[in-house]
Write a sequence for this structure.
């Protein structure tokens, strides 16, 4: 075995290095056991047989060491964790420094959040790097899977490791290998749904990281020129989606003025392979898309006007939804300030217990600011924690609401007996239900994919982008609200779609 005992700068043959990795002779520490970290640690364990997971939450550690997963909605993860713990291939701890001292491969997968000024906050990453540095040995390989602002490995992590460990830069490896996973399909994605991007701080780091992911993934390993390029790949993926969604939302807001279903137009336009428009919706939520644009906006002199505009448009969408609701209510003679409104879906995606940057929170806040009495329904989280009175699906028939807003269409909402509910205005942000045969007044944001325009086909008023309402005969009436959100001048609104 190489005297360094690691993969970086190893003199062992490639076959021997793979053997050491898959036999458990190269212990792995995975730092961060959250929604993405635990699935990653599980796949590392099934591949290498020797993994210690690190998390600051003692309850998480206790749960995992008991053979259970604390992450819900991730098919196969419960069984994987149970099997790997039972066979002593995986254990968890809160002691990051001790885990680092015993490991030769260190994998960072903790979140990079934003501060109150939308600046990336690397405090959590740097704390993990401190633990790794305390146990770093020559030949060790450090892999960052956390999404980071480009240049973070080169300008932050590498010098931090050097300073705290006392090692020179050429004594350990450092590579950025971004996670490309989604909640609900994490194991499938990690095991090889997409090519694995690998970019090292030097060529040897790239090579060593490629050895690791050749074993973890069934898909191709795609080496890139350096760590900064790999960091940019991940951020660019998120920015592309944010800009595309921003365009879809801008087009979706035209549906009222044009009197068409923009969703139908988008779906048809996408017949051409060069057109890949996303769907409009009530906003962008999750721990990825709303954050990644700021990783570029915060550190580069380039104005990036397109990226900035898309972010603003997507942030506005919860306010736009409430504006549409207010208009529909005014057509029934109801003032939003006197209305009882139920918000359906608090998490940012159906079936995923994650509320970070969820557009539903922006909708709830905007409704409350305008004086509405807000209730909420969600099968995964407690709406009370987000400012809405909690109501169960079963209790809806006993409630009296003036309006409902569908933000996140959980599968459980298929059980809502709409025909049994009192007549109300329903603003559907996701084209999730067809209420055309019910007694409810329905408004579908952007129109329905079936071709229905936003409002019911009964001559209902549509909202124009000049702040007025367009009647069936082409005339206009003043809107009930004077807000500028419809024309894009309001920025006080509410991630993955």
């Amino acid at each position: 075995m190489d005297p360094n005992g690691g993969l970086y700068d190893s003199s062992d043959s490639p076959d021997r290095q793979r053997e050491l990795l898959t036999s458990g002779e190269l212990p792995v520490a995975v730092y961060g056991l959250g929604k993405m970290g635990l699935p990653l640690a599980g796949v590392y364990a099934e591949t290498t047989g020797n993994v210690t997971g690190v998390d600051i939450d003692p309850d998480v550690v206790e749960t995992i060491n008991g053979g259970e997963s604390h992450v819900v909605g991730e098919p196969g993860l419960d069984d994987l964790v149970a099997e790997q713990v039972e066979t002593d291939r995986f254990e968890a701890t809160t002691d990051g420094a001790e885990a680092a001292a015993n490991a030769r491969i260190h994998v960072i997968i903790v979140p990079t959040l934003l501060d109150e000024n939308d600046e990336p906050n690397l405090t959590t990453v740097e704390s993990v790097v401190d633990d790794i540095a305390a146990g770093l040995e020559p030949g060790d390989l450090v892999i960052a899977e956390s999404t980071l602002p480009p240049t973070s490995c080169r300008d932050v992590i590498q010098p931090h490791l050097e300073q705290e460990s006392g090692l020179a830069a050429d004594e350990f490896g450092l590579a950025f290998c971004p996670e490309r996973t989604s909640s609900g399909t994490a194991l499938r994605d990690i095991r090889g749904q997409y090519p694995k991007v690998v970019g090292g701080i030097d060529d040897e780091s790239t090579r060593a990281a490629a050895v690791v992911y050749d074993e973890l993934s069934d898909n191709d390993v795609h080496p890139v020129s350096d760590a900064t390029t790999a960091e940019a790949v991940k951020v660019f993926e998120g920015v592309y989606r944010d800009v595309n969604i921003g365009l879809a939302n801008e087009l979706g807001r035209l549906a009222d003025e044009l009197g068409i279903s923009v969703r139908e137009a988008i779906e048809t336009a996408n017949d051409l392979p060069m057109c890949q428009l996303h769907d409009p919706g009530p906003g962008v939520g999750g721990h990825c898309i709303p954050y990644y644009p700021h990783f570029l906006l915060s550190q580069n002199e380039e104005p990036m006007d397109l990226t900035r505009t898309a972010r603003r448009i997507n942030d506005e969408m919860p306010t736009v939804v409430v504006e549409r609701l207010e208009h529909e209510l005014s057509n029934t003679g109801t003032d939003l300030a006197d209305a009882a409104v139920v918000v359906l879906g608090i998490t940012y995606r159906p079936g995923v217990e994650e509320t970070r940057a969820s557009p539903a929170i922006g909708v709830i806040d905007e409704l409350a600011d305008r004086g509405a009495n807000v209730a909420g329904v969600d099968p995964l989280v407690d709406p009370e924690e987000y400012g809405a009175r909690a109501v169960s699906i079963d209790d809806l028939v006993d409630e009296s609401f003036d309006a409902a807003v569908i933000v996140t269409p959980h599968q459980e909402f298929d059980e809502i007996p709409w025909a049994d509910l009192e007549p109300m205005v329903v603003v559907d942000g996701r084209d999730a239900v067809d209420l055309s045969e019910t007694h409810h007044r329905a408004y579908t944001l952007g129109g329905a994919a079936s071709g229905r325009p936003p409002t019911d086909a009964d001559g209902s008023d549509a909202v124009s982008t000049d702040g007025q309402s367009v009647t069936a005969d082409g005339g206009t009436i003043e809107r009930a609200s004077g807000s500028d959100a419809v024309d894009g001048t309001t920025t006080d609104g509410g991630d993955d779609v």
User: Anything to note?
Assistant: The chain has a mean pLDDT of 91. The radius of gyration is 25 Å.
